[in-house]
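Why do we care about 3D structure at all? Because function follows from shape, and shape follows, mostly, from sequence. That is the central idea of this module. The next example makes it concrete: a single protein chain, its amino acid sequence, and then its structure expressed as tokens.
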Amino acid sequence: MKIDVLDFLKKKSAHKTIDLDVELKGFDYDYEYIKIIKPIQFRGQLNMLGDLFKLQGNITGTIELTCSRCLVKYPHELNIEVDEKFSNDKEALDEDDDVIFIDSDTLDITEIVLSNIILSLPIKRLCKEACKGLCPMCGTDLNNSSCSCMTEEVDPRLAKLKDFFD
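And the structure:
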């Protein structure tokens, strides 16, 4: 959804309530396709104070992530607070590093929502905190079953020392 900011610039003080359902099936990020399970919604408002646009609101929805340990897909609930500032005045950018420069007459809310979702993604994606992952030898999911692989791991640099005492 794009918002025309020319109307805001003429008034120098304005307020607009935004109720947006983001039309996305999914997106690519970090070599992974992230599927959207429950539609992403943005509820908030856009205010103009002088030359500064302030977007505040909340992003909700559910996306599907892949566990870093066991590679199982799991749902991840989104509840993200958004507080962004924009300006088309380059002088306002020099004063505040948190202000994003807009060089056109429109403000793309969908792009802002997507960038906030990407920033909120967990670095270590786990289906559950106690996820055991996959066996490094046979690839069995250790959350569902156990394997009969030898768990004795020897650092290859120290393997010769293991035979030293035999």
